[in-house]
Amino acid sequence: MSILSLQNCSIKFGGLVAVSDLCLEIEADDLLGLIGPNGAGKTTVFNFITGVYQPTSGRVVFNGKDLAGLKPHQISALGIARTFQNIRLFPSLTVYETVQVALRKNIRYGFMQAVVRPNSLFQQEREINETIKEILNFFGLLPYQREMATALPYGIQRRVEIVRALATKPRLLLLDEPAAGMNPAEKNELMGLIGQVREHYRCAVFLIEHDMKVVMGICERIAVLDYGIKIAEGIPREIQNNPKVVEAYLGEKA
Amino acid sequence: MNELLQQVINGISLGSIYALIALGYTMIYGILRFINFAHGDVFMVGAFVGYYFAPIISKFFGGSPFANGLLVMAAAMIICAVLGVTIEKFAYKPLRSRPKLTVLITAIGMSLFLEFGGQLVFGPDPKLFPALMPSSAIVNTENLVISTNSLIVIITAFVLMILLRTIVYRTKIGAAMRAVSYNHYAASLMGININTVISFVFALGSSLAGAAAVLYSSVYPSINPLMGIFPGLKAFIAAVLGGIGNLYGAAIGGLIIGLVETFVTGYISSTYRDAISFSILILILLIKPSGIMGKFEAEKV
Amino acid sequence: MNRHRSKLVLLASLVAAGGLSFLQPYISPYYFQIIIYIGINIILASSLNLINGFAGQFSLGHAGFMAIGAYTASVITTAMNLQPGTTLAIPMFLLALLCGGLIASIFGLLVGIPSLRLKGDYLAITTLGFGEIIRVIIQNLDFLGAARGFTGIAKLADFFWVYAFVAVLIFLIYNLIHSTYGKGFMAVRDDEIASEAVGINVTHYKVVAFVTGAFFAGIAGGLYAHFVTYINPSQFGFLRSFEIVVMVVVGGMGSIGGVIVAAILLTILPEALRAIAQYRMVIYSLLLIIIMLARPQGLFGGGISIKRFLKQNPEQT
What we know:
Chain B has a domain of 206 residues.
């Protein structure tokens, strides 16, 4: 059974149809790539999966549940996490606190207990602390835990953002252009990281990427979007040789 | 019936003044996406410019009251324009790349600075704005008085609005303004000097506030350094009501706020006059935050 | 996280407040009044800091909440004809203060709801409008004395009450923001979309900040009313709100200690410099502008964290 299913999803902004009649299935252990020229509507797809926008028509079904009308934080709670095209880290939080915020749903106390601090709170905070240390250690971020997340080098910021997403224990991870702005060494590291994530977290990964080396290198399946319409879907080799895809990228043959 | 007509005329007269101030808010918002809290206080300065210049102008130029009135208004417009541009250069420009919160706090600071700096310079006590031209009643029946003053206010305001429309839609700098309000970066790639355009918008908006101040003070002649607060806030509400960033919206919003306020004062109680505009603001923000003519802007993710 | 330290500090502060209140007869009434005002301003500024500084919801209506608390508590104590020194005075005064805080927090909820849809400038001006509406309504309510003001309030607030609430509020904010739950406030302030994406309910945090902040502003209003014994609507105008904002900005948004220092200094300064009293608001306004230009994290908020937030380039987010 697929974990995420987009059923005839369309979204319009004013008169502009950004995504049209999109159908897509993602399996629980998939690594699916979404490619397409600039402005094809790729990020918009992420935005309506995560509830930032509501699709104008069509259904988004995650794990058998229709996501219509849910707010982004509720969708996050169901198990979808994401990163952003332009990294969105919290400017006033450290790496440690950034992961801590993402563990918010692990705590079972509220405002009152946070203020009066019963003993059960300390137990929970200790668990949170252990989880943070564990995650940071696994991704090699422990040395940076006290640093402000936005003060770190670009590649590490990307990594922090992925780790923040993973801290919510997602079953589906959406990565929006994770390799953008990275040098070749960082890109190789990123590909290793994504492999690590799948192995350790056992979640499906759905990624938008422009870098063909990254996409072809790690994705098992690729979907191609052009002007909001899915023009192809298949394994990397099929996509590389698909005339429609070549046309979308290189323009019409003369 | 006459009473109703009277309220409508008073409302349009007050509303067209609000509209002039609202145009400044809306233009500055359109181009910088922030509310210039100090705009109402630029308006106040305009009133004091009129107060100090009116005797000088009538003494040295000695033209007809109409010509003198125009000169007083021109003086207020020019000085307010200079003030607006100066405020932008010193307080807002250095913050252009910062989060909105810092600009907002600076604007509030600037507003308070003009208000209380004004108290030091002009004195805190109300002053009587000189009558620029003898006001006579055109119509004067049992309960309907239409004075030349209120007609002059309405006509002047409309002439200024048409002038503004011509500048924005018929001139090169107006086209540049519209381009910058659409996209700073793209406009700068087209060779538009963003800083010049922003200065021009501040000059234009502030000069309208200066003109509005002279009109306002000739109807409500008691002026003081805090007088800009409420007209400023109400004009802002008018801009939001009409759809902030939209010129026609500001004009319509101004008229609506002027009319509503006059009617509340006339038929309910003047003590609720200030509260009603804020209630309108809260309602419009909850029901249709984009205003009457505004477009919805989604945050880009 | 140190298990008992903050509770011990709270207890010690309460005992100290109790002990120090016995010094009252030895302090001149003038200085005593300043000390009380400092306490009330710390409550006002710190509670606003929760809304403006930690949750990032710029509110200009704090005086409105203060007014609600002041009038509610005064109506209750006056109706019960409480007199200082009687047995009922202490528990009933506490009850009246809590009622004032509660009613204020209900209004905090009402104001918090638009804050879910409004940002920055719009929210600021809406909260300012809310404060003005409160003031105008009180001005028109005869049983509250309308514009003449509300007189004959018993002088029930003393050093202990004011500083006990200071201690409780600081304790509350400190514990809150040092918990995993409380980190959510800063996340919401920094980036709402990213917060939602990691499962933070932005609505919840904004409303909690407004309700809690309003509650303590209401308490501060109640204390103020029962110290000055006479209140009128013009004491709670938007200039009052601005003054509280100045304390928060000068002290440093999101800095607990900085805001306390600023509240103390900005209460003493106008008194110490009587000669320049007329320049007070001009100095305040210049402080706001200069701080935003040169040191947006505030004069005493040394924390690097908020500085990064206030200096970030929005284009890069």
